[in-house]
């Protein structure tokens, strides 16, 4: 048996499971997501899904990592393409990319659902904290040094503030309970705040 081919096939299957779970979680929420439902949509057995992800929590955890990995791959691609641009130009472009990403139903729906779950399920709270830590690190790398007068410690704090605001924006858009504020207005205000935190001493 070709072990490499078997491994590749397994990777493809696990990706199919994650994409299907992502679509279900984004559209039907955590309550609507089940291992059996994923299996049914893919036309495979429940035991096949369980072979890759032992239970629903493991599936959701892998799904969130999958979403974050895809986002970070997109960021890395943009950064590589803009290697000749200034640090500020790269930061502005990445912020635009983040705002585009959280508009996508398959990303927005998953994040909003995980945030809601984090208030009552310990495993979801752990996932959210892991995402926050990962994002703080990435944002810090993007903004550190933009303003020489700002210390490293201060930039770490500002990176944390930007991450909190990004997730606050996701939560606000999920609630959508203030008709006086459009998505465009919220995004513009967020961009101005991010830029100020990154550059103003």
TrEMBL record:
Tell me which domain of life the UniProt entry assigns to the organism this sequence originates from: Bacteria
What keywords does the record list, in alphabetical order? DNA-binding, Transcription, Transcription regulation
Q: Which SUPFAM superfamilies match?
A: Homeodomain-like
Record-linked InterPro entries:
Homeodomain-like_sf (IPR009057), HTH-type_TetR-like_transc_reg (IPR050109), HTH_TetR (IPR001647)
Q: DNA binding happens at which residues? A: 34-53
Ranges of residues in domain HTH tetR-type:
11-71
Protein name from the UniProt record: TetR/AcrR family transcriptional regulator
User: Which source organism does the UniProt entry give?
Assistant: Limnobacter profundi
